[in-house]
Amino acid sequence: MKTARRCIVTGANGFIGSNVVRSLMREGYEVTALVGPGVGLENLEGLNVEIREFDLLDRKGLRDALTGGTHLIHTAANYSFWYPDPYLAYRVNVEGTRNVMEAARDFGFERIVHTSSTATLSPFARELGEGTETLGDEERILNLSRFGGYYKHSKIMADMLVARFAACGLPVVTVLPTIVLGEGDRRPTPTGSMIVHFINRRMKAYVEMPQNLVHVGDASDGHVRALERGRNGHRYILGGDDLDMRSVVRILAEITGIPAPRIVLPQKLFRVLAVAEDWLARSVFPHEPLFPLEAALHARDSERFCTDKARKELGFQPRPAEVVLRRAVAWFIADGHCKNRLTRKAIQARLNL
User: Where are the beta strands (DSSP E) in the chain?
Assistant: First the structure.
């Protein structure tokens, strides 16, 4: 009798995690959903999964939660551009990942996928000289001089940790989603906040930078493909179309009927504002900055990405950026993120919702 494949998903009630659960179920997996605090269970409503509570920093409790699986997808992480307590990023993203990988090794999981981010790939194109452009890929050489921000630091440390486990024989594959948009982004994430600001007419200016957009459904399917087809120890970029920010706001304007902002904020000015506000937020009066320093560093280092490896080895097929943006707008409208009733109704009419 064939043993059922049971996949355990950490962070299963989160944005990417809940969509990974759905992708696994479509492929016939039995799923154990590990859910953390701070996020409700709305993303898992109606799904026939076993739900277990867990804490990445509670080693014994985590090991109890990870029992009984044959496969594992580790999506749980702290994703933010602002940390009142900067060390939270390291505790969750680094120590939490270590706890998961140690348990996975000891329990003998057959296959493991670790969710990373293209934020861990060193920006490189601008260093080659003006007029030269390269696409970021999985073989990018790490350049610590170009890294900045607690989130980026914590994720690259987690990646190095996972690579060490892989070198010692752990059957783990790493996936690196680009800018993920779509259904289930309830907080929303920093990337989803861009859409929310736009549909609420709060985006008065933007910073020009490359944007690689991928739908969360495609990214979650990519996780499952990596679980089944990925080579141990390898990394796969899960991305879609590359656009500049001017094109992103133009498409959003076409989708929503809301005029695109015309002010383009220079990169250097954005960083100056971010540095000043970060100092105020940490030294004068605590608040979440309007211009987080990590967001400014992310804008500085954004780039275009090559997804050929995932397409060739995993059969990864992302949908076009216009579809990604349209579905993201529809999700945020349906989930109540557009506060103005007239604007909401106008967008609903345009999208036939």
Answer: 6-10, 30-35, 50-53, 71-74, 111-115, 172-177, 179-181, 205-206, 210-215, 235-238, 241-244, 263-264
